[in-house]
Write a structure and sequence with these properties.
Layout: E1 6-9, H1 15-26, E2 30-35, H2 38-46, E3 52-56, H3 62-76, E4 81-83, H4 100-118
Parallel strand pairs: 1-2, 1-4, 2-3
Length: 119
């Protein structure tokens, strides 16, 4: 179904991102997998063979996105899709208990990081 397509998957070290990565490779895609958890990501990618490469990446860093795109083009020649999976959640908290730093980081990853990926 994805034979020969190149897909970028963010947040690919664990959970849903890892499942997206594994499913894309199983369906014939070549995948550029990204995550901040570099060691875990590399173990996952190493188990998948030549059709997956790992890039340590913070989705809130525009220059990091440039590296991801360059890796996809250099390794596989194209980009055909994006699984913009990276996200964080610190659990429910009332507004008076939530720190601005946590709120801001959540927005940066879940909103701005997704925007950078689409851009």
């Amino acid at each position: 179904m994805l034979d020969g397509k190149t897909i970028i998957v963010t947040g690919a070290a664990q959970g849903m991102g890892r499942r997206h990565l594994e499913t894309c490779v199983a369906q014939g895609a070549r995948v550029v997998a990204t995550d901040l958890q570099d060691e875990i990501l590399r173990e996952v990618v190493d188990s998948l063979g030549k059709d997956a490469v790992a890039v340590a990446h913070d989705v809130t860093d525009p220059e990091g996105w440039d590296r991801v795109v360059a890796t996809a083009i250099d390794q596989f020649g194209a980009i055909n899709g994006l699984v913009n999976n990276a996200a964080i959640y610190f659990g429910p908290a009332s507004i008076d208990q939530e720190s601005f730093e946590t709120f801001e980081r959540t927005l940066r990853v879940n909103l701005f990081g997704t925007w950078w990926g689409i851009k």
